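Run log // design_07
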């Protein structure tokens, strides 16, 4: 969550207080906490678990929270509604399928940002390869442009030695940041 929020905040062209952000698979609200700390105030969240939504609601950081099982149903938002969409910590084997990427794009405004993360541990490498193929296909089609794909060696603590990156006790991960096309032209003074 801190790396995703920092990446998004760095890319934002204007003060983020008025930006509408959708936190997909929001869980307990860790991403919202980080975004709020960086000046984002208009936060909406969706999650497939009613229990997680209750925990997110208890943070007081979200203006709107909705139940949505991504991959089985569309996001509960109109097209081109959000300035940014995040999906942090749920893109992995047995979690959110990479086939949801077009749905994330659908609800993002042209010129808006999509920030994603995934793990690089051995049990997630096949999923990550499929995710990166889907990301690249959308980029080649002109749907979005990649601003960042940052590999992070010490992503999170490994739960087993087999999952650890070269015996470090940690697994690696990646933060991706894309901007939906068409990107608005820069106004010259």
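design_07 sequence
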């Amino acid at each position: 969550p801190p790396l995703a929020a920092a990446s998004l905040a760095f890319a934002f062209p204007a003060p983020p207080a008025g930006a509408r952000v959708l936190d997909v698979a929001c869980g307990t609200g860790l991403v919202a906490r980080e975004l709020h700390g960086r000046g984002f105030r208009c936060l909406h969240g969706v999650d497939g678990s009613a229990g997680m939504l209750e925990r997110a609601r208890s943070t007081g950081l979200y203006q709107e929270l909705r139940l949505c099982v991504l991959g089985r149903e569309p996001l509960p938002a109109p097209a081109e509604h959000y300035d940014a969409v995040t999906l942090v910590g749920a893109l992995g084997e047995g979690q959110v399928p990479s086939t949801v990427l077009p749905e994330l794009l659908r609800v993002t405004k042209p010129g808006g940002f999509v920030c994603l993360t995934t793990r690089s541990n051995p049990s997630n490498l096949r999923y990550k390869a499929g995710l990166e193929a889907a990301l690249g296909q959308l980029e080649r089609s002109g749907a979005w442009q990649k601003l960042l794909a940052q590999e992070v060696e010490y992503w999170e603590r490994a739960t087993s030695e087999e999952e650890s990156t070269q015996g470090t006790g940690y697994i690696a991960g990646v933060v991706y940041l894309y901007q939906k096309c068409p990107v608005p032209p820069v106004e010259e003074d």
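The domain at 1-180 is CATH 3.40.50.150 (Rossmann fold).
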